[in-house]
Amino acid sequence: MEQSVKPASSLPLNPHIAALPPYNAGMNIAMARALSGRQDIARLASNENPDGCSPAVMAALASSSFEPWRYADPACTALRAALGERLAIDPGLIVAGNGSEEMIAAISRAVLVPGASVVTTVPSFGLHEIEPLAMGADVVKIAMTPDMGFDLAALETAIAAEPRIVFISSPWNPVGPGLDHSSLQRLIGAVQPGTLLVLDEAYFEFADPGAPDGIEVLRDSGIDHVVLRTFSKAYGLAGLRVGYAVCSDLELARVISAAKTPFNVNAAAQIAAIAALADEGWMKASAGRVRAE
Ligand SMILES: Cc1ncc(COP(=O)(O)O)c(C=O)c1O
């Protein structure tokens, strides 16, 4: 007998969450194959790496250092140390996340209160809007220019109004262009104390040669900032879920860390990310092939 399912809840739900627009995760490849009757389908919408991942990742996951029965290190100590060495920054400034998307949520939880204002672009990565909305923030969205570039003047004006957070991705998903040095400096110049600039560099490894490195540029900027990076794209670990936030100070990193779930990055993901980071050659070759295509 079929169970009768209640369509609505009589519970008073959090109105900010209840009103959220859905995140569009796109269609998975199994469904696309079933619907189209074709096997030769490339799933472009999620920007997965067509090369897969480094064989060193598969070897690390098959090694005895992977112990699925144990809780993973909640602080991702080894991964953060490896990242700190690679990026020449204090690991205390790094927070690792269950994908960089978790860091977008944690930053929003750490910084926003209902009624706070957030600036982002449109189109943009959906969570730059959804996570602030979940915190009850008001989101101002700056449209791209007709030639599909950043509207720097409009962004400067919006940032001058002193929002609590500015979310910008560079290279820009889904439009493509990245901020060049002078554009990034213009945005940095517009940021006032009390505003956090979040530069989402999920596609950093695919940027044009000579493009600014947000971690390096922002480190010297003096403004409150977070740079987001991920293992999902160039390193091909989208299914394992590892990303990270590089914060401008230790207190910000501590509070963002407090806003994440404790065992957020699972054991397989931590081992895989360390192995992927060590095989920089594979990542660079793959990113080069994707750029060439
Ligand atoms: C701009 C941008 N930021 C963040 C993410 C989230 O990536 P992940 O959570 O897999 O690290 C994506 C994923 O598509 C993205 O396009």
Short description:
With 293 residues, the chain is α/β, with parallel strands linked by helices. It has helices at residues 15-18, 29-36, 55-62, 77-87, 100-111, 127-134, 152-160, 181-190, 214-219, 250-258, 267-278, 280-292, and strands at residues 94-97, 117-122, 138-143, 165-169, 196-200, 225-230, 243-247. The chain has a single domain (55-292), classed as 3-Layer(aba) Sandwich (Aspartate Aminotransferase, domain 2).
Task: Please tell me the CATH architecture by its name.
Answer: 3-Layer(aba) Sandwich
How large a portion of the residues is in β-strands, by DSSP E?
Answer: 5-15%
Q: Structural class, from secondary structure content? A: alpha/beta
Give the strand tally. 7
CATH topology: Aspartate Aminotransferase, domain 2
Report how far the terminal alpha carbons are from each other. Answer: 54 Å
Radius of gyration: 20 Å
The gross shape turns out to be globular
Key features?
293 residues, alpha/beta, 7 strands, 13% strand
How would you portray this structure in words?
The protein has 293 residues and is α/β, with parallel strands linked by helices. The chain has one domain: Aspartate Aminotransferase, domain 2 (3-Layer(aba) Sandwich). 38% of the residues lie in helices and 13% in strands. It has helices at 15-18, 29-36, 55-62, 77-87, 100-111, 127-134, 152-160, 181-190, 214-219, 250-258, 267-278, 280-292; strands at 94-97, 117-122, 138-143, 165-169, 196-200, 225-230, 243-247. Strands 1-7-6-5-4-2-3 form a 7-stranded mixed beta sheet, with helices on both faces. The mean pLDDT is 95. Residues 47, 99-101, 125, 169, 173, 200, 202, 230, 232, 238, 243 line the site of pyridoxal-5'-phosphate.
